[in-house]
Design brief:
By secondary structure, the chain is α/β, with parallel strands linked by helices. The chain has helices at about 15-25, 30-45, 45-55, 60-65, 65-80, 115-125, 130-150, 170-185, 190-215, 240-250, 290-300, 310-320, 340-350, 365-370, 385-400; strands spanning about 5-10, 30, 90, 105-110, 165, 220-225, 225-230, 255-260, 280-285, 305-310, 325-330, 355-360, 375-380. Helix 2 (about 30-45) packs across helix 5 and helix 12 (about 310-320) packs parallel to helix 13 (about 340-350). The model has no long low-confidence stretch (mean pLDDT about 95).
Length: about 400
């Protein structure tokens, strides 16, 4: 029997369509909200953070935090365990996390044309035509972030779905009939094959979870307990990496064999194992652009995750989008000064540690910075190793 993965375009079908589908099919119903809630409780991660991982672009710090990969793996792990082997409906675009190797999943996308959706958005939420268009654009962009990240394909790419139902041309009852007719066509030679697909999904998810928690970003598939790990980034010490990945994977119950292979993008980037103990969210703020970029690059060469901005205004805007753990902050900048940035950061989030690094400070500035909560105060030029040690200490305090 089938699993129906239901991808509903915003403002394309009535809110109770999934309930009617469950009633007609007799299938169990599971929503994305259910899985996100359960993932949040299991891994102690705020639900909003999980939704952001699904439908927003990766953080600028993601190359050093592995946060998006880790959070998506949490959701995938929970989905693999919460989803029944068959006779189930799962609603939500996170169904894209179910691998295509689970052959009895029928992927159904219901979508209306943009004008119909715009009219429905205006009616449902009492929006003007312009606001309805903006609302739809925002929602579609968020969903597109997921498909671009997972497949490098647009949200409405036909190859992502088994059936595309134009709900502006097909009635609700006809849509239900189309889905049930196609679900009925999914027949397996035996129930054991179907059960094996789900078991492989669960095992691959568990192995990937174990690997990502050890700092590795790789692809994992499973076939009857045989694990294939695909490395898509170049490493000069592939044999050593193969041994480490294998040693982690074989600790997972149910793994009978492990193969490590090179993926099609193997030579595109350099592979690095992520060290979660090192600072990974450091923001350098300095209006001397060359200095800020050079310092950021020097820290990255020491495996410190950094980004750089070049004014107080940019720093405050950046902090609204991304929450760094440590700031390396200049004092004298055009516009908003470093002291004003420090004051605002400590008001918004006192846990962020701020290291002042200035070439034009005074004793009064130093005293003021300390009174506002600065973790440390340095004058340029500063010894890079001394600054690095201070960043690590500030990071430990921020984490505590």
């Amino acid at each position: 029997m089938a699993i129906i993965a239901l991808f509903k375009g915003a403002y394309s079908l009535g809110g109770d369509f999934q309930r009617k589908l469950a009633q007609r099919s007799g299938y169990a119903y599971l929503s994305e909200a259910d899985v996100v809630r359960r993932t949040s409780e299991r891994f102690n991660v705020p639900a909003g953070k999980l939704i952001k991982a699904l439908y927003h672009k990766p953080s600028v710090f993601n190359n050093f935090t592995l946060e998006k990969q880790r959070l998506l793996t949490y959701i995938q792990m929970e989905l693999s365990e919460a989803l029944p082997d068959d006779k189930a409906i799962y609603e939500g675009f996170s169904a894209h996390l179910i691998p295509v190797s689970v052959y009895h999943v029928l992927r159904v996308c219901t979508i209306s044309d943009i004008q119909t959706r715009k009219i429905e958005a205006s009616r449902a939420d009492n929006l003007s035509g312009r606001d309805a268009s903006l609302r739809l654009q925002t929602l579609d962009n968020e969903l597109n972030c997921l498909t671009q990240y997972l497949f490098k394909k647009s949200l409405w790419e036909k190859t992502l779905y088994d059936i595309l139902i134009p709900t502006d041309k097909v009635s609700e009852d006809e849509a239900l009939s189309i889905i049930m007719e196609n679900a009925g066509k999914i027949t397996m030679e035996n129930d054991a094959e179907q059960s094996h697909d789900m078991a492989d999904f669960k095992l691959a998810s568990l192995v990937r979870l174990r690997l990502v928690e050890n700092g590795h970003d790789v692809m994992v598939t499973s076939k009857s307990g045989e694990i294939t790990i695909t490395v898509n980034k170049h490493t000069l010490r592939l044999k050593k990496l193969e041994a480490e990945l294998t040693n982690i994977a074989v600790t997972v119950k149910g793994v009978s064999r492990v193969s490590v292979v090179q993926g099609p993008d193997f030579n595109d980037e350099i592979y690095r194992k992520y060290d979660f103990e090192l600072p990974s969210k450091v923001l350098v703020v300095d209006d001397e652009r060359d200095f800020a970029l050079t310092l950021s690059n020097r820290l990255q060469l020491r495996d410190i995750g950094t980004a750089a901005v070049f004014s107080g205004e940019e720093a405050l805007s950046f902090i609204d989008e991304e929450m760094p753990e440590v700031l390396v902050l200049d004092l004298k900048m055009d516009g908003i000064s470093g002291l004003d940035v420090l004051k605002e950061i400590k008001r918004k989030n006192p846990k962020v540690e701020v290291i002042i690094l200035t070439g034009h400070g005074t004793d009064d500035d130093k005293e003021m910075a300390k009174s506002l909560g600065a973790y440390a105060y340095f004058e340029k030029p500063v010894d890079i190793n001394k600054l690095l040690a201070t960043i690590k200490d500030a990071h430990k305090k921020a984490r505590r």
